[in-house]
Amino acid sequence: MKAMFAGFAAIAVICVASWAALTNMGLSTQSKYSAPSVRVD
Amino acid sequence: MFTRFIAFIFAALLALQIGTGAQAQEAQITDRSATGGAQTLADILARQEGLKIDDSFRSDNLGGTGGSVPALGTRGSASDPDLWRAIRYGKADAGSQTNGSLGPVLIQDGGMAWYEFRAGPLSSYGGYLLLGTIAALALFYILRGRIGLDAQPTGRTITRFKAFERFSHWLLAGSFILLGITGLASLFGRKFIIPLMGHEANSTLLIATKFIHNNVSWAFMLALVFVFFLWVWHNIPDRTDITWFAQAGGIVGKKHPPAKKFNGGQKIIFWSVIVLGASISASGLSLLFPFDMPLFAKSFALFNDLGLPQMLGAGELPVALAPQEEMQLAQAWHAIVSFVLMAIIIAHIYIGSIGMEGAFDAMGSGEVDEAWARQHHSIWVDEVKAKETPAE
Question: Residue B298 belongs to what domain range?
Fold first, then answer.
């Protein structure tokens, strides 16, 4: 069962890591609809 | 190529729909002399019925430009209706501060058709598919019961899946279940969550589900790559699968056909996960990076070039798609394929848990009893034993 819980833990880690990475890279839908003079928030 | 192949099925369905509309349109060729070439009541009624009409008499009627009639100023002979018609058909020479080709599309009427498809047939048939699968499995359980062990457990175990194989499986399984639940919440939130919990709760819940759905998707895609390379060699179809299917895999009846590491049914599951999972991933990436990864115009152009929709008598598929239309098609495709894969996975979960005695151990501890292995994967057991026994 260790492998199962390790898999679930990896999901959580990947989820947070991808959120941090994509936010820093400005790749969200929100930023796609935005421009320097057009904010969507 | 897998994605394109799967997308073809979707395109064919779309083409058939377009073809049906075209046939309906042929029945009513409209005389517009009474309106001076403008649309008639028949045009409006046809549009309201959702029939596809040839509206080039409107989309091409954009007036003269400033260049063509300089004496009339910057807009030439174009009137306000001409201008709005140009905007409505995406032909206005418009600019926007937002990036790319997205901003200048001020009117995109395909959005309504997508919204109605999403709220109507997609939700209804998708929901029926999942509920029908669960009902069919419940009926099967009542009729067949749990598939048990014919022989007494030996107490000796064989390693069925190593730690990394199980890790990859659960990475894929856990992420898929999370993606499935959050995807369903996004689709059905308006219909079921709002009446139960209200708009505020639905909003909060869906913000959370969006976060999970977008970010857990990477775990799914990573795990999909892992399981592909781990198990593809064992899932290549061979002659044992014919015997397995001929005997219905022992699921129906008392026979237990010989099988290697993966039997015919498991190979169906494997390839379904790989092909449909890859397609879901491709459309998902298109949705994750909006307007950067359009899939459908290129795919439709490829199908048109191959002549596939024409062979179905549906004419050519549309290849001039607005960026928003690309996203709408990606969302529809993402959901359709996901529903199919969810139904398959529900059946997989059933047979791997309550449906078959001893099946969960393979992915739980990784160790299965030798009696279980001989009953369900006799050729694989012989292969394992042969490797264990030193050659004389």
Answer: 110-161+232-388
Domains identified in chain B, total number: 1
Partner B, chain A 1-40, Cβ-Cβ below 8 Å? 1-4, 6-8, 10-11, 14-16, 18-19, 22, 27, 29, 32-38
On whether residue B66 sits in a domain, the answer given is no
The pLDDT confidence band at residue B250, using thresholds 50, 70 and 90, is confident
What value of ipTM does the predicted structure carry? 0.85
Contact pairs from chain A to chain B, CB under 8 Å: 73
Q: Which helix (H) or strand (E) holds B368?
A: strand B367-369
The pLDDT value recorded for residue B188 is: 93
Quick: pLDDT tens for B220-241.
999 999 999 999 999 999 998 8
The CATH number covering residue B258 comes to 1.20.950
**Pairwise CA distance, residues B118 & B136, whole Å:** 25
pLDDT band, residue B78 (cuts 50/70/90): confident
CB distance from B340 to chain A under 8 Å?
Answer: no
Q: Is pLDDT at B167 greater than 50 in this prediction?
A: yes
Q: Looking at beta carbons, which residues of chain A come within 8 Å of B171?
A: 7, 10-11
